[in-house]
Specification:
alpha/beta, globular, 12 helices, 259 residues, 15% strand, binds phosphoenolpyruvate, single chain, eight-stranded parallel β-barrel, TIM Barrel
Length: 259
């Protein structure tokens, strides 16, 4: 069983033209090339080639996408296949981001189908789960996480789990500037790890990378990453600012050095 990995991933969302993506990827490479943790930039589909160029074959910084379809090809207008992503040098893919669940009809079932297809093709899924503000207020956080995690992992075997990352992203904290406290984030990440322990094994749960996402920034990253069950971050807004992103990556490197 592999060792747990610290992974800091930037989610650029729908930002940057290909030219801008190359410039930003170069800026990330200049600042993060010596990171002791894994660094990923998840870019829009049209930016994949240029972002890859900007990374200049970096062995530390990997390329990610923000969605993948479950079919290998066919009549699925507007979608993209795992093979297409792989052919652009993509290693990671964000699946089930709350913005996709909220605005584009992504369901627990489609998240599972995309996850299985990604794993089978050799892409590493970053599967997003998280409760809304209302669900938290109603005391439903754990049941929502349990439902989303179990659904995402349907038919995923223990060996494949090695290549999967979970991102705990409370919906109320995404792009809002409201961050979960480190205790709130840790509580849910530990719950998620315990769930994986129940579903698989101690070793699988121990090796699993669980990221926190939701207004993580240069100021709060070190504190969030100091928690024992937070193994990285999925970073939206701050990933577009290379200096801020580098501070978060440094916090990830420090955590990796402590493992
Ligand atoms: C995200 O897009 O996954 C995210 C966490 O965004 P932000 O950091 O901007 O809240």
């Amino acid at each position: 069983m592999k060792k747990r990995e610290i992974v800091i991933a930037g989610n650029w969302k729908m930002n940057k033209t290909p030219f801008e993506a190359r410039v930003l990827a170069e800026a990330v490479r200049e600042r993060c090339e010596n990171a002791a943790c894994k660094v990923v930039i998840c870019v829009p589909f049209v930016d994949l080639f240029q972002a890859k160029e900007g990374l200049l074959g970096s062995s530390k910084i990997a390329l990610g996408a923000q969605n993948v379809h479950w079919a290998p090809s066919g009549a699925f207008t507007g979608e993209i296949s795992a093979e297409m992503l792989l052919s652009c040098g993509t290693e990671y893919v964000v699946i089930g981001h709350s913005e996709r669940r909220q605005y584009f009809g992504e369901t627990d079932e489609s998240v599972n189908r995309r996850t299985l297809a990604a794993l089978q093709a050799g892409l590493k899924p970053i599967v997003c789960v998280g409760e809304t503000e209302r669900e938290r207020e109603e005391g439903l956080t754990e049941s929502v996480i349990a439902r989303q995690v179990k659904a995402a992992l349907t038919d995923v075997d223990e060996a494949a789990l090695e290549n999967l990352i979970f991102a705990y992203e409370p919906v109320w904290a995404i792009g809002t500037g409201k961050t979960a406290t480190s205790e709130q984030a840790e509580e849910v990440c530990r719950y998620l790890r315990d769930l994986v322990k129940e579903l698989y094994s101690d070793a699988a749960a121990d090796a699993l990378t669980i990221q926190y996402g939701g207004s993580m920034n240069a100021k709060n990253a070190a504190e969030l990453l100091s928690m024992p069950d937070i193994d990285g971050g999925l970073i939206g807004g701050a990933s577009l600012k290379p200096d801020d992103f580098a501070v978060i990556v440094n916090a990830g490197s420090e955590k990796a050095a402590r493992l």
